Amino acid sequence: MIRVDGGEDGVVTITLDRPDKANSLTGAMLSDMAAALRDAEGARAVILTGAGDKVFSAGADLDEARAGLATSPVWEQVSGAVAALPCLTIAALNGTLAGGAFGMALACDLRIAVPNARFFYPVAKLGFLPQPSDPVRLAALIGPARTKMILLAGQRLSSDEAHAYGLIDRVVSPGDLMQTARAHCADAADGTPDILHKIKSMVP
Questions:
Q1: Domains in the chain and their CATH numbers?
Q2: Could you give the 3-state DSSP secondary structure of residue 191?
Q3: What does each of the 204 residues of the chain score in pLDDT, given as a tens digit?
Q4: How many Å apart are CA 99 and CA 181, to the nearest integer?
Q5: Strand ranges (DSSP E) for 17-54?
Q6: 3-state SS string over 108-165?
Q7: Contact, 137 vs 107, CB < 8 A?
Q8: In the 8-state DSSP scheme, what is residue 60?
Q9: Cα-trace Rg, the chain
Q10: Measured at the alpha carbon of residue 135, what is the angle toward residues 58 and 127, in degrees to the nearest 5?
Q11: Is 120 helix (H, G, I), strand (E, B) or coil?
């Protein structure tokens, strides 16, 4: 469900591996993700991605969401763990990003997506509050009005719109996604953890 690869060259890839369920996240997967992020604290770069060619993650598993997962503090714990990593973090979005999965992508330093990706966070419609840090991080990237457009008005963004707004940093073909993500890790992989951490801490 959560697959961890690499690390020998300083670059760790963490994959949401539940493509038959649109990589929707269960409580167990979120716990495994938190553990994988703790284990990656010594890495020089971490890439988060999803299995399959359509969806990075549809958010919470529907059955578990109805049972309370949608409002669990574990979402905030995972996004906080991503944000706290002292190295370069990249969300390689292989497809649509939805719901609670926004948190881990927003907490990354960079977001790269494929052209067919869509972006939506339907909390108003579903009657849930977003994770506490998500509106703050989202507004820092795209501004308050566009944040409200997504969270309150429930609008879906195409990858081109998301790129134009600043939600994602690059749009690349599916075949180039991981190669591009790894290319962005090259300098960090050659660096030292203390310098990477200091550089990262200098950027507000």
A1: 2-120+157-202 (3.90.226.10)
A2: coil
A3: 999 999 889 999 999 999 999 999 999 999 999 999 999 989 999 999 999 999 999 999 989 988 999 889 999 999 999 999 999 999 999 999 999 999 999 999 999 999 999 999 999 999 989 999 999 999 999 999 999 999 999 999 999 999 999 999 999 999 999 999 999 999 999 999 999 999 999 998
A4: 23
A5: 45-50
A6: CCEEEECCCCEEECCHHHHCCCCCCHHHHHHHHHHCHHHHHHHHCCCCCEEHHHHHHH
A7: yes
A8: B
A9: 16
A10: 60
A11: strand
Q: Could you tell me if 67 and 40 are in contact, meaning their C-beta atoms sit under 8 angstroms apart?
A: no
Amino acid at 65: A
Largest CA distance in the chain: 46
The two structure tokens encoding residue 12: 């760790």
Residue 184 backbone zone (phi > 0: left; psi -120 to 50: alpha; other: beta): alpha
192 CB-near residues (< 8 Å, 6+ apart): none
Question: Do 108 and 82 form a contact (C-beta atoms < 8 A)?
Answer: yes
Tell me, what amino acid is at 80?
Answer: G
Q: Is residue 157 packed enough to be buried (19+ CB in 10 Å), middle (13-18) or exposed (0-12)?
A: buried
> Which candidate, 59, 157, 171, 153, places its Cα nearest to that of 115?
171
The total of other beta-carbon atoms located within 10 Å of residue 41's CB is 14
Tracing tokens 């370069």 back to the chain, one arrives at 88
**pTM of model > 0.85:** yes
Q: Cα 31–32–34 angle (5° rounding)?
A: 65
